[in-house]
Amino acid sequence: MSTVKPVLLSGIKPTGELHIGNYFGAMRQQVDLFKSGNYQCYIMVADYHALNFIQDAAEMHRLTQELTMAYIAVGLDPTQVVLFKQSDVPAHTELTWIFDTITTMPYLSRAHAFKDGETKNQEVSVGTFNYPMLMAADILLYDTTIVPVGQDQKQHIEYARDTAEKFNRTFGETFMLPEPHIMPEVAIVPGTDGQKMSKSYGNTIPLFASRDVITEKVMGIVTDSSGERPQNVYAIHKLLKSESELASFYEEHRGKYKALKEALIEDLDTFIAPLREKYEALKNDPGAVVRALEDGKQKAREVSEKKMERVRRAVGVA
Ligand code: ADP
Ligand code: TRP
Q1: How far apart, in Å, are the Cα atoms of 181 and each of 27, 75, 157, 197, 222?
Q2: pLDDT in tens, 241-300
Q3: What domains can be seen in the chain, in order of their start residue?
Q4: Which residues contact residue 121 at a Cβ distance below 8 angstroms, ignoring those fewer than 6 apart?
Q5: Which residue's CA is minimally distant from atom 11 of ligand 1?
Q6: Which residues, given as ranges, of the chain have pLDDT below 50?
Q7: Ligand 2 centre and the CA of 239: distance in Å?
Q8: What pLDDT, on the 0 to 100 scale, is given for residue 152?
Q9: In angstroms, what is the span from residue 55 Cα to ligand 1's centroid?
Q10: Cα of 256 to ligand 2 centre, how many Å?
């Protein structure tokens, strides 16, 4: 008997080198939920979202290729997951326009990304202002049930829910309301300086780092000698081993920061090595990425176009 599985959808913008914060905060949940077999998964390279930040064609190509390889390397099997590029599916931008017509400027002005830009006195682009509507379209086109993301994306999912409700009230029941899926214990992965790990802060450990890079990054972790343990080392270590596994080791090596860092290098390398191998193998097989995205494009177009036909009828343009 074939049953219809609930839909999981998520995406990441191809805007830079992926780091372990992206993995533990976002990608790992996507992979675990995919592997549970309980969901029909759609995973997207959000290149039109990235266009707000990356305005160089060669760079956009490279980052898109890298993110696609990363998704496959961490375990999202493109024969079972619909792995696609946002720009390959025209329904996303078409639906964004329709959502724009039922959304007010004051409502969008409350979005964090817009407010941050305003506080920094930046001249925020219309694309950044409208970011939540494109994301709502991404999610709502596929009748998504859950959206696994990092904590910082929670507000965007609320925008998607509000937009679905508003559309349904205005034009009749069309969209399902999605739920965010956020893992609280790794909601914010700290970087080598203890602040949130982010490519904008230069405090990352790259997800496919070589042993040498891992060593350099770990040796650069800022150690705070005031507490019982070097907190910044421990916080990253905790992502790889349970607290009970670490407790005795940290107790035995109290104050010996070099030994603790060496252990962290070892554990990071053990975790990263198999991912790095898959990633390197994909680099030598560019056809695999092209095929994966081509398959994803066909499937995502098919599903989203059906939904759009319904949407066009609901609003009265078809
Ligand atoms: P960055 O902060 O490096 O620019 P992005 O904003 O591109 O990262 O984030 C991509 C995904 O990874 C998002 O879903 C985000 O929630 C998650 N993420 C990024 N950094 C972290 C972190 N330090 N801890 C947890 N999740 C993170
Ligand atoms: N805005 C997300 C981020 O910055 C990326 C994204 C785009 C996304 N569309 C999405 C995430 C749809 C989940 C669902 O990380």
Answers
A1: 12, 19, 10, 20, 31
A2: 999 999 999 999 988 999 999 999 999 999 999 999 999 999 999 999 999 999 999 999
A3: 7-187+285-315 (3.40.50.620), 199-280 (1.10.240.10)
A4: none
A5: 22
A6: none
A7: 23
A8: 83
A9: 20
A10: 41
